[in-house]
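Hello forum,

I keep getting stuck at the same step: I have a sequence, I want structure tokens, and every attempt I make locally crashes halfway through. Rather than fight my setup again tonight, could one of you with a working pipeline run this one for me? It's a single chain of 98 residues.
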Amino acid sequence: MDDLGHKRVFTAGAALLALSSAAAAAALANNTARYLGSSLGVAVTVSLMGLGHPATARAAAAGADHAVLAATLLWLLGAAGALAVRAAQRRVSARYGS
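Reply #2:
Ran it on my machine without issues. Output:
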């Protein structure tokens, strides 16, 4: 194998390593976001359930209602954001043909 062949093998290996590093970084970012989201969700739920008089079952149920309402509003906000991003991507691809 000549010198050019060795360079090709090295370049292919470097590209594969870069791809696997990018995939690992994406997986790490995804897991970090998931753990942060769940911990914040638990904290918000507990704090909303603690509103009022936490010693009674009725107050805990009312707090749970507030927590579900807040989670629903956050879910709707996230869904609206995702739909807005999708619409923007469609407009860009329609305009530039990519």
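The chain has one domain: 3-96. If your local run keeps crashing, start a new thread with the error log.
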